[in-house]
Amino acid sequence: MNNTPFLFALVLLIVLTASGESRAAQLFINELFHNDNFPETYTKPIPREEKPMLKPTKDRPKIALTFDDGPDAFITPQILDILKETQVTATFFVLGEKVVRYPEMTQRIFDEGHLLANHSKTHQDMAEMTNEDIVALELEPTSEAVEKVTGYYPTIMRPPYGSLRTDSNRYLAENGWKVVRWSLDTFDWDSTRNAPENLIKRIEDFHHPNAVVLMHCNGRETVMALPRIIEFLKELEYEFVTVADL
Ligand SMILES: [Zn+2]
User: Are residues 9 and 93 in the same domain?
Assistant: First the structure.
């Protein structure tokens, strides 16, 4: 075997690399050894299936799954099982009165890395309340209940029914609350259109980067649809984040 081209290329490679021209050196080497003498492993392209299939995180679209009205003892654990199985992080907008009733489930949500957020204490329509009452009667007792269980005090809130006056929006923002609604309603709360295939279709039709997806800890349909929803979004390389990380 004639080593002369190799030695020549090696010298050139060193010179070009030293002068900051490593790309040019590579191109030259590739050109020079475009023959059968060069070991195959040096020139063979990496097969597509051996390349990482997921794009770097910074290039992937984000999406936030959110689950309202929990925790409970029946649906919430099934949702948590699916999220754990699929390694998906989500946000749970919990009700204060249910946090008091199901502290273990609240703790489990927290322990498994999901974000706990405030969805009021009693699911009152906040449009009917004074700003002071919204905070004192609904928000603070809920975040205090979460804090008592987990040590974490949520300041992100979602008004029940998404219903909140403009002046309340402003008042809450001024008092350190971050109001988060949603951009994609699955309608899993509506028994006339919450068949699992309908929930999946809503996601297929309306998913978008930075979507906040509204779901609930209420019905079996959500549990039945969730694995396919996650699978579909993973096929599109969505990164699942909490609403705090959008
Ligand atoms: Zn709700």
Answer: no
Q: How far apart are CA 43 and CA 33, in angstroms?
A: 8
Unique residue bearing structure tokens 């988060």: 180
Whether residues 216 and 118 share a domain: the answer is yes
Show the beta-strand stretches assigned E in the chain.
62-70, 91-94, 115-118, 156-157, 178-179, 184-185, 211-216, 239-240
**Cα→Cα distances 62→90, 207, 241, Å:** 12, 10, 7
- Beta-ladder partners of 93: 68, 117
Q: Is the predicted pLDDT of residue 98 greater than 50, yes or no?
A: yes
Expressed as residue numbers, the domain containing 179 is 57-245
Which residues are identified as catalytic?
Answer: 68, 216
Task: Give the separation between CA 129 and CA 135, rounded to whole angstroms.
Answer: 10
CA of 92 to the centre of ligand 1 (A): 11
Ligand 1 centroid–CA 4 distance in Å is 76
Residues 12 and 63 in one domain: no
Check whether residue 101 and residue 10 sit in a common domain. Answer: no
pLDDT at 100 over 80: yes
What's the CATH code of the domain at 76?
3.20.20.370
Residue 34 has pLDDT above 50, yes or no: no
User: From ligand 1's centre to the CA of 218, what distance in Å?
Assistant: 10
